[in-house]
Amino acid sequence: MPKHENLGPYKKRKIDPPGMKGGMKAADLLDGYFLAYNSARLKEAAQLLVKKVLQPDVTVGVSISGALTPAGLGAGVLIPLVKAGFVDYIISTGANLYHDVHFGIGYDLFESSPFVDDVDLRKRHLIRIYDIVFDQDVLLDSDAYVRRICRQPEFQKEMGTTELHWLMGKYIAETERKLKLKERSLLAACYRADVPIFTPAPGDGTIGMNVAAAALTGSALKLDMNRDIFESAAYVYDAKASGGKSAVLILGGGTPKNYMLQTEPFIQEILYVNERGHDYFIQITDARADTGGLSGATPNEAVTWGKVDPEQLPDSIVCYTDSTIAAPLLAQYMLTRHKPRALKRLYRRRDDVVDRLTKAGAKQAKRIFGVEKRMEGR
């Protein structure tokens, strides 16, 4: 029998899982049977989350793209993580938040099939999201609800998307209470937990369209994207400047992925504030780097942008799989293997953290102006 001495540091554990039995916990399944390929990457991500990312001094940002809330991952996966203190801020597509509204105001979506007659669905006024179907009135009534609350007094000003979503969550939480619904809306859960939610491209979504439409009937609500850029980066800077660490969990790609990662280049390369990059990087994706779908967003490539601390590359994991498969397994693992954390309630501190980053950037103003001076005439 070979003694395997030559394997040295390349050997981790022998692949020799026991035969499966019924009644196993998902966390035990990951630890015992996810031994190679992307199952092993998913296990490593789960273990990294529990061993390092969920430490009290780590600020955890989660980005979500793709139709995750219509698939039930808002209520089923993300709300339990928010309540457990495992998510400190969120960066989402507008679509995920819009579809979250349906659940919070008492509407239902249904499992179906991707192999249906879409012409017939159109005749029946039914909407399809791959293998999910629901009545068109769900959209129309959700639109009316969003426009109505956007005309309320506290919305009549310019604000960032975190304030918009926090106020929306406040109204949805009250609607849930009146309808006796139990924790169906991610927006409402984040309002209760003071978890900020950003949407990088609010015009690319139905909430943004309804904000625009509300202006036709007198709403003064406008969205301040400058505020969002500073605030998203400020949570990262505040975590690091306070002696803690920053972690990102990226579910899918799109604008939320880049917006999550650009926080560090904004601090380092735009404001010239000394920083090194995120400490923990976990990405669930089905995109490929060679076609441009992961441009700037694999850990090694992200190092060149200052997005990831080069010394923390061993704590960077990419798992190539579907978020609707990975997210429930990761959530179950975290909830099983780690006790809840105290809520950071970052939304309550948003003005203070933005002020801290603004002051740090102001100290570098001469350097910024110096770069601009060198560029004159080009």
Summarize the structure.
With 378 residues, this protein is an alpha/beta fold. 48% of the residues lie in helices and 12% in strands. Helix 3 (73-83) runs parallel beside helix 8, helix 10 (225-241) crosses helix 12 and helix 10 packs across helix 15.
Task: Write the topology of this structure.
Layout: H1 26-33, H2 37-53, E1 58-64, H3 73-83, E2 89-92, H4 94-104, E3 110-111, H5 118-123, E4 126-129, E5 132-135, H6 136-150, E6 158-159, H7 161-179, H8 186-193, E7 197-198, H9 206-214, E8 222-223, H10 225-241, E9 245-251, H11 254-261, H12 263-270, E10 280-285, H13 299-304, E11 316-320, H14 323-337, H15 350-362, H16 365-375
Parallel strand pairs: 1-2, 1-9, 2-7, 6-8, 9-10, 10-11
Antiparallel strand pairs: 3-5, 4-5
Helix pairs in contact: 1-14, 2-14, 3-8, 3-14, 4-6, 6-9, 7-8, 10-12, 10-15
Beta-strand level of the residues, as a percent range? 5-15%
- As for the number of domains, it is 1
- How can the largest sheet be summarized? 6 strands, parallel
Order of helices and strands: HHEHEHEHEEHEHHEHEHEHHEHEHHH
Sequence of strands across the biggest β-sheet = 7-2-1-9-10-11
Number of helices: 16
Ranges with pLDDT <50 over ≥5 residues? none
CATH class category label: Alpha Beta
Secondary structure: number of strands: 11
Shape: globular
CATH superfamily: Deoxyhypusine synthase
Assign the structural class, choosing from mainly alpha, mainly beta, alpha/beta, alpha+beta, or little secondary structure: alpha/beta
| Percent helix | 40-55%
> How is the CATH topology named?
Deoxyhypusine Synthase
The average pLDDT score comes to: 94
CA(first)-CA(last) distance: 70 Å
Radius of gyration: 22 Å
**What is the CATH architecture annotation?**
3-Layer(aba) Sandwich
